[in-house]
Amino acid sequence: MMTAQEFKNKAIATSLKGVDKEPKDWITFNDQMHTKLITDDNDFKSKVHLNSNESPILECDMSTSYLLVTTDRIISIINNFAYEGNIELIDDITDDYAVKNSTKGPDGRYPKISLFSLLKKNGDKILFAVDSYYPAGFTMILISNLISYKSTGEWFLNIQ
Fold first, then answer.
1. How far is residue 15's CA from residue 105's CA, in Å, rounded to a whole number?
2. Average of per-residue pLDDT across 129-142
3. For the chain, what are the domain ranges?
4. CATH number, domain 4-152
5. Which of 49, 50, 75 is nearest to 61 (CA)?
6. pLDDT-derived band of residue 77, with 50, 70 and 90 as boundaries?
7. Given pLDDT bands bounded at 50, 70 and 90, which one contains residue 159?
């Protein structure tokens, strides 16, 4: 059984294989990058109480939304409304916002943020926002890997 830190390190390493740039080289259509990988738990100052066996993996702190992905949970706050779900209780990623995330607006620009929805096993949804383009793609790979590993013991992205 892996510790939370070992699981986090493996999830990050496995998920990074799904993008062609290192985080320092990621591109977003947002005005600035708000998404960051949390490689050192000691540098993390949370807005959210973490359980003793939980390790933060990714955070996106924007003016009207906040996202925290941990080894156990997805926590999102959008316009002061909180969503939370244990990864083991998440069933799937929905495509509710797929067109909105990938379609240029009337001004010919791509969206600055990407909006996603996760379906929990009880039918509830977790809505979250993240910087567009590379951060959004990586976040979806990471969450897919976490859901898959927690439910099957196998990574969604199984690139060696």
1. 29
2. 95
3. 4-152
4. 2.30.29
5. 75
6. very high
7. low
